[in-house]
Amino acid sequence: MKIVRTPFLILLLLASVSCQPKNKSNKQEVAQKEESKTHMATKLSAEQLQEYETAYFASGCFWCVEAIFESVKGVKEVYSGYSGGSEKNPTYEEVSYGRTHHAEAVEVYYDPNVISFRQLVQVFFGSHDPTTLNRQGPDRGAQYRSIAFYKNEEEKKIIQDYISLLESENAYGDRAIVTEVTPFEKFYMAEGYHQDYEKRNPNNSYIRNVSIPRLNRFKENFKSYLKEDAH
């Protein structure tokens, strides 16, 4: 089993670059909503998605996390959204500004005949720093905390066993793993324009300076896990 011994997400000293929303003009908002409708129409249907298993993770800005899991073989679809809180129907503005108890999270649809839940857990820990409390890179707040969600006792054990392995191997030196191991309850889909955000907004400053470098570090260390077109 591959263990990554160094954190991948390096804190960038770019105060103006973050995953939090910026004020938009009405024209920009209208254009964004129209683009979202077109893009969401290309996603797999609910009927098609029923053929696959699901897994849920939170490890910082969901733009980054979605792109990472999308690059993994056996993963059929990934959605950005919100989970881990009790508030109903949260919005991006509410979550990103810490007005709820939710974290930015992803919903991963995968084929267990190609990739296992254990391997997805490995991807999760290998693509972010699980020792930074309520922070990933330039994004700070509980909404960016590290969470591995489980749907049953078997998944819980897989997560806990992998954390124990990382600790026994001293993977992060004297830094403690602060990832929450939390029972999955509800996933709220994020607004349409967040889906595949990195892929559709390559020139966004956050994407260029934080998200793409994070994805590339993951790819360099998990080459055998990548889809053919992700190399």
Write up this protein:
It catalyses: L-methionyl-[protein] + [thioredoxin]-disulfide + H2O = L-methionyl-(S)-S-oxide-[protein] + [thioredoxin]-dithiol; [thioredoxin]-disulfide + L-methionine + H2O = L-methionine (S)-S-oxide + [thioredoxin]-dithiol. Its EC number is 1.8.4.11. Has an important function as a repair enzyme for proteins that have been inactivated by oxidation. Catalyzes the reversible oxidation-reduction of methionine sulfoxide in proteins to methionine. This is Peptide methionine sulfoxide reductase MsrA. It holds the Pfam family PMSR. The protein has about 230 residues and is of the alpha+beta class. It has one domain: Peptide methionine sulphoxide reductase MsrA (Peptide Methionine Sulfoxide Reductase, Chain A, 2-Layer Sandwich). It is built from eight helices and eight strands. It has a six-stranded mixed β-sheet. A two-stranded antiparallel ribbon has the order 4-5. The longest helix is centred in the C-terminal third of the chain and has 17 residues. The chain is globular, with a radius of gyration of 17 Å. It starts with about 25 loop residues before the first helix and ends in a 10-residue tail after the last helix.
Q: What topology emerges from the helices and strands here?
A:
Elements: H1 26-40, H2 46-49, E1 53-59, H3 62-70, E2 75-83, H4 92-96, E3 103-110, H5 117-126, E4 135-136, E5 139-140, E6 146-150, H6 153-168, E7 180-183, E8 188-189, H7 197-200, H8 205-221
Parallel strand pairs: 6-7
Antiparallel strand pairs: 1-3, 1-6, 2-3, 2-8, 4-5
